[in-house]
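Journal club prep — side note

Before the paper discussion, L.F. wants everyone to see what a predicted structure for a comparable chain looks like in token form. Sequence:
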Amino acid sequence: MFGEMKRYKTALILGFGVSGFAAAKLLLSEGCRVIIFDRNDSEDMRDRAARLPADNLDIYFGAVSIGDIFSKVVAGRFVMEIPAEICIISPGIACNDPWVKLVKSSKIKVVSELELGASRLKVPMIAVTGSNGKSTFVKLCGDMLEQNGIKAVLCGNYGKPVCEAALEQHGKYDWAVVEVSSFQLENIVNFSPEIAVLLNIEPDHLDRHRNMKTYKALKSKIFNRMTDDKLALVHDEIITDVQKLSSGSPVWKSFGCSKDSDYYYHNGVIKKKNLQKGIELDLRQTIFANEITGLTAAAVFAVSEYLALDIDNTKNALMNYKPLPHRMQVVGEIDGVIFVDDSKATNIAALTAALEMTSCPIRLIVGGQLKEKDISKPQKLLKNSVDAVYCIGESSITFKKEWDKFSHCFLCGDLETAVNRAFKHSKSGDVILLSPGCASFDQFCSYKDRGVQFQRVVSEIDSSK
């Protein structure tokens, strides 16, 4: 927990998605006057607005300029006066957005919805960030706490917004497990979890963050306000860089595959460094028996140790873990061909991890809105494990041009064509893997929509047999 942010009389909210709505509800419940701006104007937004109390609320949707609303002529010149003490920014709005620049030029404090919500939580937080694996960590950590009789709310970029969790807490929770994105970290000031975890840093969202230096610095911000009574867990390959970038002073612990890590994964078992006899976790009969998800389990094991939880309860959580939808989720088997939905893989690092976790011959479906320039990472896997690549969306030609020399690539255009062509080419024992390595917004509403459509096509193939 960290010191509660002051209560405000007036607040500006930029963005009225799920997090903006939660921030508005929380501020209105405190008697704050709330002003909301969103460039979109949809039926969903207006329905959302109708669920807020009308008192102390002003909402501007569509192509409305903040400057037009709050400018006035004084002594023959335009003056900007935004009637707000603080601005809450939704994750979808970048720091260089003209609205944000305008607000900052008016000397108004800008913070993320995460910062506001966390300042109102009355329970300690376990916060996790990283390029991949965050949601799996959050769910597994929540399962582990539940197994130990600890009530936890799962929130942030996973589940409900932190502001919503803060609104409904009223003694219901003992801990909060918070998934934190780089977008949310752009505008934190005092955010200070009890435990913070950085799983990995791979190229992602560089269309917004510009370069890896900026992206790595953003991820490291999660530790900036942590003190020496708090725990920072970082992948061993990046912990040295992260310590240099962070201004915090927590207890630093590492996890990884190296025996030099404080907690390490090796051959299906998680062990603690320099432990001659004692606690270790055997994961060989679980989905964590690989160097990808095994590292996530190692981080959760470290949290379990820090909280002095029962080792058997932690093991039960791991043994009984059910994968999240659209994350290496087996969604069908037809004539011995297995269909796997990994639509959540929206960057090349996640795609590479999916290939490393799949032992059967692979027919890979990739494509969408590419978020990075370098797609060379999985070349060896493409050559050794992938029978063919089926390219969809706006990045199809890029993938075919770069990868055709390693595995035969087919230009398919859309997902339905790709799935049907891959199945036509398959034999029993093959895996058709949707792991796009790209954002979905060129052809779908979200990665979830893409995964649902994949499952629909698989179901249609099955019903036609």
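L.F.'s comment for the group: The chain has three domains: 10-114, 121-319, 329-464. Keep this in mind when we get to the figures.
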